[in-house]
Amino acid sequence: MAKRVYLFNEGGKDDRELLGGKGANLCEMTTLGLPVPFGFIITTPTCREFFEAGNQLPSLLEQEYRVALDLVEKKMGARFGDPENPLLFSVRSGASVSMPGMMNTILNLGLNDEIAEGLAKKTDNARFAYDSYRRFIQMFADVVLGVDGKLFEHEIEKYKAAHNKVLDVDMTAEDWQSIIVIYKTLANFPQDPFVQLKLAVEAVFLSWYTPRANVYREMNNIPDTLGTAVSVQAMVFGNFGDDSGSGVAFTRNPSTGEHAFFGEYLFNAAGEDVVAGTRTPLPVEALNERMPEVYKELYATQALLEKHYRDMQDMEFTVQQGKFYMLQTRSGKRTGRASIKIAVDMVNEGLITESEALMRVSPEHVEAFLHPMVDPAAKTSIVANGLPASPGGATGSVVFSAEEAVEVARDGTAVVLVRRETTPEDIHGMKVAEGILTELGGMTSHAAVVARGMGVCAITGCGSLTINYQQGTAVTAEGVVIKRGDIITLDGTAGEVMLGDIPKTEASSSDDFQILLSWADKHRKLKVRANAETPEDAAKARELGAEGIGLCRTEHMFFAADRIDKMRGMILSETKEERLKYLDMLFEFQRDDILELFKVMDGLPVTVRLLDPPLHEFLPHTPEEMSALAKRIGKPVETIKAMTENLHEVNPMLGFRGCRLSVVYPEITEMQVRAIISAAVDATEQGYRPFPEIMIPLVVNVREIRMLNEIIDKGIQEVLKEKAISIPYKVGTMMETPRACLGADRLAGEVEFMSFGTNDLTQMTYGFSRDDVGKFLPQYLDKKLVESDPFVSLDQRAVGKLMEMAVTESRGRKKGIKYGICGEHGGDPRSIQFCHDLGLDYVSCSPFRVPVARIAAAQANVGGALSD
Ligand code: PEP
Ligand code: MG
After folding, report:
1. Whether the predicted pLDDT of 868 surpasses 80
2. Which architecture characterizes domain 525-614+649-769+818-846 according to CATH?
3. Is the pTM of this model over 0.85?
4. How far apart are CA 833 and CA 367, in angstroms?
């Protein structure tokens, strides 16, 4: 039978899956000889057993953990359930992947009437003993017995009001005893410590399925099947008096990444007070002033842990009567900026390798790094200041609850969530908010940690605001009233709150970012190109590291005011002569536009796709527009109407588009080819090095390609002969239809490259219209009929299978054939991993995704190597 219970000296940091992250690290710290209060861990497989048995603990479990408990008692020199010398426990959750604050915790377990009295005697601190007892009843009733925690808070408020008390520190031991009497009327609270322990273990397992944990797992793609471990650890007390306290610290600054120890501390407080953010903590240096020996130990411990784990650590510690204890360590959540700085610094410090540094940065972090910032020049008067908890700039309409945030954001309205503090229950509101602002809490409060992890701009500890939920107002120290629905801007980098919509500058860059990207380039196999049509987009793409254009959608080049009528005239031509006249005009534009792209992408390939969309997309829709067009191009409006109707299709995406246009109107293709090659000639003559690649869209069989190739070759040769020049070029096809993929072996002999157009390929594989999918896909996602939106992240099972088949069967049929992807998936990290594994040559994505794609491509390459 598998062992279900492990003592802290029986595991290590590599046992995450078995003992959960928290448990594994408690074991590791114990083995390192750090002052960790002793305890034991009930494993994650036990949690799965519990659920499989219909929420029943295995029958032998209690026997097993009682053996461990005896050993903990010996080590701690105190006994569970013994009023003379009581041992109390914290009972905490901890899954193999970090889910901060999402599951339940119970502290001070093991107290009852008799033991509280004993604790009072033993510690000679009745106030502390009864405060601990009432905290325990409150937490136990809330978490285990399901009694609303607010009822208890309400009783305390009532009691304080009736007895002229304001703060908790005003409460005496007798006051807490009175509160305990009231509490016991609210909950059927078990006096037997062993019953408490058993119920607490069950409650922690059950908390795996609390709504907030479910939302968090869904957001972070964490499988439901993992389950949580339970750690049962001897309690130490930070609320014992002024020589006690609790703190949270990071080995480096989690916001900026700066290599400086960073932490927060509350004197005479339990750990939950720091995390909950109900009091704003002091910088950890305050501990150095009052208890330098303890600070020294803390400082040495953090340095040791970072070196040992080779990553930035987020730690919880407690001081009880001047003695220092470590309660937790884990890899710290960090902002995008910090993650990049820390990764680069740690390579420079010789702590990690370049490959490891690349794996430490998530694609989301790179994106967050590219976030907009409030323009310093545009800042107007700042109405409140708080802590810069999560960087970036955000503007939105003020809401005061998570529910309101979801409601208002539903139609795409940007919201800023304003709360006194946030709790894990607010996660759904935080997820939709552009920015988060809290009155209370420090840099390590729930709001700060969660916002940073999500890359959402946030300000915490904005104590100058007075928030009134009922009235829907937040009043600043100067009396400025911010009302529900008002537009405000947060600068999460500076911690400043401003009224109105303040302009933001484009995302910035840093030397560290460039260094990391250069490592990514060194460690990746996939090339990264961009999808771009305008010289501006192409220039941006190149600046962000694009190695060419993987898709230039030529149709986008005909919509400008000076060319759309010529396009329409061409489409509405009644004879070939008429069409040729318009095509001659379009030729000039096409050539000049493409010339600009060749210039920007000097020395790099530019893939120009032949006209693709259904022609009616270019035509006017209303009678007024048609009449106006009739006048401009000198055609009777009736003719225009009739021809437009004629072009109308029942299923345009499956209709007259792609290379089918070239089959019916070869003259359009001739014009485009002439324009592309003429532009290449012009570019060459001007001293540039163009590499045109002509791409045929929506192919289904080899005969289409042969026919198109003939038109294309003829066009190219005519231009080159006329100019007596030779230019390198390629002709290839998009792979967008299932039939093209299934028949790739035959297509291969006729092309020099294949580029997967996974937008259409997904549409045609699923039979889901990419333009109408919004009507039903949300339901599919909700009901888990699909894992994720297949238009965002490649469906590897079926669409991926078609790609794999196409590559496998065509590879080697023609020497030097290149494979790429230019659908939206080309910028999606998970899909990039797939493309790497498939051995494609390049991905092509929108310009702003290029840095993400560079990192993802490197991760795809080094990730496998590291885990081998
Ligand atoms: C595709 O289908 O994936 C593609 C890139 O082409 P478009 O999106 O223009 O149809
Ligand atoms: Mg397409």
Report:
1. no
2. Alpha-Beta Barrel (3.20)
3. no
4. 17
